[in-house]
UniProtKB/TrEMBL annotation:
TM annotation in the entry: 15-39, 51-72, 149-168
Lineage: Bacteria, Pseudomonadati, Bacteroidota, Sphingobacteriia, Sphingobacteriales
Protein name, as recorded: Sterol desaturase family protein
Domain Fatty acid hydroxylase: 96-232
Localisation: Endomembrane system
Length: 270
């Protein structure tokens, strides 16, 4: 037991990659089998998205070293908002309040990525997928990976998130991100209740609609409460939802890994 505990605590990236890989593979297979999508067609789409792992993963792993060093230093010096709260050693403050704080930070990050022109050029790569499925989760420009990790370091400095909280958060976040990109949708009845608190596929699919104002709604990461609180919650029927982004409608560009990688350096938001 001690071995597993110490492994999970010393190999956070390995654990995430393991969970990520197992979940994404099983959901990918389920999408193909249950929704009867031809394997060849699905594989071509997935292959383009999987290439983004090759460029983003080294950045993610490199930056993780700094994130872990920072989290250790912050904890040792009792810095950050969480440390200032009464009973800050309790599980409620350390994990529950900490998780909610970090989720709000991620919401804020997503809004910033949409509203700041230069950052949007990198984030829109995620939105160029015209066929949303579980593989869209990994469609992230390495430039955004770098920016996301820099912001994470800022959130750690502000909140004082511990290493254990970050590990818990990353694990739940990864599962949530993967499931919110699947082609499976919840029934309206279930979505009505689950979506009150959590981001569901039904909610995140609206964020991937190709036109404003829907692209600029449902920014939530794990919790949907921030969109409801700050008026960015949006609904759209599945039949009216068209995936992609209107500024980059060319399917040949969106299907090409190299061309999509170049988007931040050659295009402007219309
Ligand atoms: Zn977005
Ligand atoms: Zn997405």
């Amino acid at each position: 037991m001690e071995f597993y505990k110490s492994f999970f605590l010393t190999h956070p990236s390995s654990v995430q990659i393991l969970i990520f890989g197992a979940l994404i593979t099983s959901l990918w297979l389920a999408e193909g089998l249950i929704l009867a999508i031809p394997v060849g067609k699905k594989w071509r789409h997935t292959f383009t998205n999987m290439l983004f792992i090759v460029t983003a993963l080294p950045v993610q792993l490199f930056m993780t070293m700094f994130v872990l060093l920072e989290a250790a230093w912050i904890s040792q010096n009792h810095l950050g908002l969480l440390q200032q709260l009464p009973r800050h050693q309790s599980i409620l403050i350390k994990y529950v309040v900490g998780f909610i704080m970090l989720d709000f930070c991620k919401y804020l990050y997503h809004v910033i990525m949409h509203k700041v022109g230069v950052l949007w050029k990198f984030h829109l790569v995620h939105h160029t997928d015209q066929k949303l499925d579980v593989s869209t989760t990994v469609r992230e420009h390495p430039g955004e990976t770098f920016v996301r990790m820099c912001f994470l370091m800022l959130w750690i400095a502000i909140t004082g998130a511990s290493f254990e909280l970050l590990l818990l958060r990353q694990t739940i976040q990864t599962v949530s991100n993967i499931t919110s990109h699947t082609q499976f949708r919840l029934s309206d009845g279930v979505d009505k209740w689950v979506g009150l608190i959590f981001i569901t596929p039904n909610i995140h699919h609206v964020h991937h609609h190709y036109q404003l104002p829907y692209t600029d709604c449902n920014y939530g990461d794990v919790l949907s409460i921030w969109d409801r609180l700050f008026g960015t919650y949006g609904k759209l029927k599945p039949d009216d939802t068209v995936f992609g982004i209107d500024t980059h409608p060319d399917t040949n560009v969106c299907k090409s890994f190299i061309k999509v990688l170049q988007i931040p350096f050659v295009s402007k938001r219309v």
